[in-house]
Amino acid sequence: GDIPRDEIGHLYRSLNLMRRRIDEQHRELESHIARLERTNMELKETQERVLRSEKLASVGRLAAGVAHEIGNPLGIVRGYIDLLKKGGLTDEEEKDALTRAESEVSRAAQIIRHLLDFSRPLSTGRKETDLHELIRETAALIEPQPAMKDRRLGLHLNAGDPEVKADSDLLRQVFLNIMMNAADAVADTPHEAPREGEEDIRVETEDDADRVIVRITDRGPGLGPEELDRIFDPFYTTKPPGKGTGLGLSVCHTIMEAHGGSIRAESRENQGTTVVVEIPRHAKGAGA
Question: Looking at domain 126-280, does it have CATH number 3.30.565.10?
């Protein structure tokens, strides 16, 4: 029962050929993997550039409102300085003028600090973040905006545990984009003073098992079914030219997916819009 030598030779050549093919396929696979890694890196870099450009667009809009808002306390401070220069005040009156001027300077400094906090470069780290504090800081940036003149923004922060593990800078951008959209929506509708207990923009939080839910509702004109289906698409916008990049909500969607959370919108024409953000307490997305 010896195997003929020519069959052994044939088997040997077949094995060698198979090994060469496996080696070639292995090299091709390594080449494909290297290309995929390069493509993935390029996609990440592009995504970061989109995030930065959208953030810069937001900073530009905020700065205009902040500059206007800072003018008010500075004007008041100038008035107190003129009063002190004229003299003739009692010690008590001088002390009162200085205290009021100091209060206005602190107010202006706080407005600038909120803008600088938002303007700093995007971080990449996730840490324990107080959602309620983040929402309050964002509301402080929105309220001075021209779109919010004579409008009421209400915070109803009812979540018992607002702590989540997240990138606070990116979440702040999510809330800012949503609130700026809400401000634009109410600014574009005829102003009717809200009835008792009503607000033009309402921000609510609540606990939901391992998540915190944030609802941001506006009393704007609402969206039709077609608009509602497309609002998270890149470059889709219902705003006039120059007022939006069309990337804001698309960026929000990307950020929430990366955090293992979600974002959706509920709206009907002439009945306002609610954007619902669900944030896991412990991020499951990439980089968690």
Answer: yes
